[in-house]
Amino acid sequence: MSPAPGALDPRRWRILTFIAIAQLMVVLDATIVNIALPSAQEDLGLSDGNRQWVITAYALAFGGLLLFGGRIADLWGRRNAFITGLVGFALASALGGAAQNSGLLFASRALQGVFAALLAPAALSLLTVMFTEAKERAKAFGIFGAIAGAGGAVGLLLGGVLTEYLDWRWTFYVNIPFAIVAIVGAIALIKEPEGSRNRSPLDLPGVLLATGGLVALVYGFSRAEEAGWGDGVTIGMFVAAVVLLTSFVAVEARVAHPLLPLRVVLDRNRGGAYAATGIAVIGMFGLFLFLTFYMQLIKGYSPVVTGVAFLPMVAGMITGSTQIATRLMLRVPPRHLMVPGYLVAAVGMLLLTQIGMDTSYPLLILPAMVLIGLGLGTAMMPAMQLATGGVQPADAGIASAMVNTSQQVGGAIGTALLNTIAASATTSYLAARTQVGMSEQAQGLLALEGQVHGFSRGIWWAFGILLLSATIAGVLINGKGASAARGQDAPAGEGREGEPVPVLAH
């Protein structure tokens, strides 16, 4: 039997465990395959030009279908969407692990993205409709936010261990036990609150425009990383994205039952949370990329040691989210956590701009990672609460999908933009210092110095990006919109007729 509207499900904390397992599986999959990619390329004979599709196929399907997945969760039920997403993701992972050629590998990654686009918003929206009491909601989102923030770094560690000690195929197979545990828990425990579905007709034009626009946008940035910003296809993708997404907004403003009700994103606090989160992710994904290469190419770390080196950042994120943000969320406005959080992360990023050929891990990289983890963990949890807080229950899935969309698009932009900046800086550095008659040893050393220079330049940009996130949070998030917490003492599920229920405290 489903809980009555406004009633707290007595099994909600046990359910959170299985939601967290599913979220960890989705988030770590974004990075776990990266470390295994060189081994998979050699085993399956992938060309250098095609190998990027192992990453791009997942990003395109996931990023492009998130809004559709969130709407399906609202329409069909979050429990149904959650379980279906888990089953599909596990089957796609099994296909990837067993792939004997590039076509099957690319197809499996695309299918993982499809089912992740259904699973991720369903998981977050289940939290939104099940945890309605302010203190409990802060704690639940603290746990969820820590997993969302740390999952990428955990993926690097797990990918390194599996690739080094087992086989690259286990970076796919490892998802299956995660999924099975989450499926069993979901079937046994999850019962959605009554009356929380959105049974309005599906906005098919909105689905086509949003999916096409997001796919074009994500592919444009992925293509830019490979072919450059002046490439004709890259420019064409960006033009198509602008046209399709502009058309999408125009359609959503007019149709009776929009895929993305504009009220979800036009709330000042919620829109600010989406923007600040997406921009911060640009810097975070770029950092993962640079530090992974830096530790392996410059410091000579193995994949496993590289993964272990990221653990202080994971610990910082967990501490920031569950100990700092969760404890202060109900005492101070969200922006008073988000702005300092992004600034602390920016200080850590500033330290990393000083990396060189002989930089000490314990003296510089370690404290920088701890600061970045603490800052992002503290900022991301209130951002996720604002992004989903105060929405009508029927909009919970689509609001959750917007959180994931901002993160996926931010990740695609960060990987492409910062990698391109770093590569350009490296090229300029080498061109200015290469001399005729240099020995091979000197040329090799210069090449490594050029790489470090490029990484440093990219991290400077990541520093500026975090400052921009802090500015957006400080300017846009004011605690006075529909997603703010005036009236957080009202019983869960109650409020003035036609208004979403405020859930956050200020």
From TrEMBL:
Record keywords: Antibiotic resistance, Cell membrane, Membrane, Transmembrane, Transmembrane helix, Transport
Membrane topology category: Multi-pass membrane protein
One GO MF term: transmembrane transporter activity
InterPro entries, per the entry: EmrB-like, MFS, MFS_dom, MFS_trans_sf, Sugar_transporter_CS
One biological process term in Gene Ontology: response to antibiotic
Membrane-spanning parts: 15-37, 52-69, 81-99, 111-131, 143-166, 172-190, 202-221, 233-251, 272-295, 301-325, 337-357, 363-388, 458-477
Domain (Major facilitator superfamily (MFS) profile): residue spans on this chain: 15-482
GO cellular component: plasma membrane
Stretches the record annotates as Disordered: 485-506
Major subcellular site: membrane
Subcellular location: Cell membrane
Protein name: Transmembrane efflux protein
UniProt source species: Streptomyces xiamenensis
